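User: Show me an example of a complex going from sequences to structure tokens.

Assistant: Sure. Here are the input components:
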Amino acid sequence: MNPELIRSLQELLPQIQGYIYPNEIEIHWGLLIVVYPYITGVVAGAFILASLVKVFNVKEVQPLYRLSLLTALAYLLVAPMALVSHLGHPERFYEILLTPQTSSAMAMFGFVYAWYLMAVLLLEIWFVHRTDMIDMAERSKGATRLLYRALSLFSRDKGERAVAFDHKALKVITIVGIPSAFLLHGYVGFIFGSIKANPWWSSVLIPIVFLFSAIVSGIALVVLLYMIITPLTGGKINMKCVDKSVDFLFYAVIVDFSLEMVDFIHRVYQSEEEIKILSEMVMSKLFSSLIIIQVLLGMLIPLLLISLTKIFKKRFSLNEDMRKMVYFISVILIQFGIFATRWNVVIGGQLFSKSFRGLTTYKMGFGGIEGLLYAIFLLALPIAILFVLLKLLPPWKELREEGEVGTEAAGAGV
Amino acid sequence: MGKLFEKFPDPLARLIVVVVAMIALGAFAYFVLIPKPVKDIDFQWADAVKREKARPVRYAGFQACEECHGEIQIKKVTGYHKDLSCETCHGPAKAHTEDPDKVKPTIPTARTFCPQCHAYNPSRPRGFPQINPVAHNPLKPCTSCHNPHDPKPPTTPKECSACHGEIARMKAVSHHVQLECTVCHQAPQQHKISPRSVKPTKPQTREFCGKCHGKDATDKLAKNAPKIDMGVHGEKYVCWQCHYPHSPEVEQ
């Protein structure tokens, strides 16, 4: 056997409790597989936020529309990187394209991903920005002009018929997009939920819990980005918009929390043979990431904070800064909570032995393709991509002005 | 092209062009650019098949053994080892079938061999015959009492273990190995005749275990037993809710 592997296993051996099978000592789905559902969750959640505007006509959230679409795209571009890197040879990714596999549930991600990227997200972003890109091409010169021309597929038509078609197409794409976003992240939950040999994963509720935690993380992230980007670019935060999105966030967190509790109570009441080892794992190896970070910091405290703004409505409605701070802290806590959720699902499912008589330990590397540094890089990369996208397709006008218009319209009658 | 742009709204026409171009490009790449062997899974497997085929064949299979060693086979098929192949214990025997006189398969005699399967390990199924190799007839080769082609306990199980073999084997490797079943259970004679209607007694109270494991235990069996303070240990629970009496494990 590889001497390096033996050395790393020897470090793990003293940390093992009870009895486990030899192939369970080392955890194979590591940090990158934690990053992957987190990122796809953000994509699905951000898209749901965008569709609130287009499908459900929530006018208050209009300022976040383009930002959430671009956020979804930035994160979607990074999602497969975590998977392909985890397979060990990212430079061979093209082989997946050359030999498509249609009978494996795991390989299905390629199709789900391609559908969501090409048929939903890119199309929607293109239709939203088409006339803007034509305008920008007209205003700019040289290479930039050529770039915008190419991006708009050399379209110059800003006539009534074309714009009307844009709107119609957007409506259709968003309606197709909602089930597609559910498919994208529900698929990730399905992959875990369908592993019947693993009682921590094998649950029909997992895809649905994943969906709601995705909505939570996506909305929270877009609100967080909005609250950071707007002051940085010299704008004023539109509190009506933030209030409304936090409202939706609040409901999503409640549903997510209830679903997780249902799952929990169900497991405890059923009390099947695995319950002993699972409760031992939750109370020892996962205590800080599940009880403290996921449930307490990631759900209960944000729920409490947001409910405070609702209970003491009068006091908070007078003090915008106070409300902003409460929201800001809540969305940051929720991000950590959702990341911990992914951690607990992925790592937790591999910590206990299939003999139900022992626990192993996850040893995270620092460098290397499975290490902490690379995972941080993958988590930071979407922000960099988003920066480029925001430069390319600036949503500033909508972030500021349209929001005001939207809130007036909402005040008038919705 | 111009007509197409007039017929459809401008954005739709452009998207149609892009999608058609992408499909055409993809099809061109797939059908023309990529050489067939790259797409052919048989081709990709061919190397692996060749590599595996090149390996020497070392195992003969149990049918080959039966041809000459039929009498052993007849014995083995009725015994507990019927699902084991001959070469599981005797090693690869292809060379032996080709030249039976020159090459002899190994006959494992070391005391370390059988415990690979039969040493006590709590993750093995309950009732699977397991021993503690250190305490089980030290230094004696396994085959002096057990015939590996038809393994049976050397003495016929009697008394309790005749029916409760799983418990007996588990107790045999536990800390309670020295205790007779009757220390804890009283079985009326009638139990042997109608075991389901007349049952042996079971300890009912914490104090029963406390006779040996209480901190003031005076029972002569209790000399080396782990002692606890019955007043504070385990509160309202009875002992066997945490400790399985036939294999009592103590958590550190």
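The lines above are the inputs; the final block is the predicted structure for all two components together. Chain A is about 75% helix and 0% strand.
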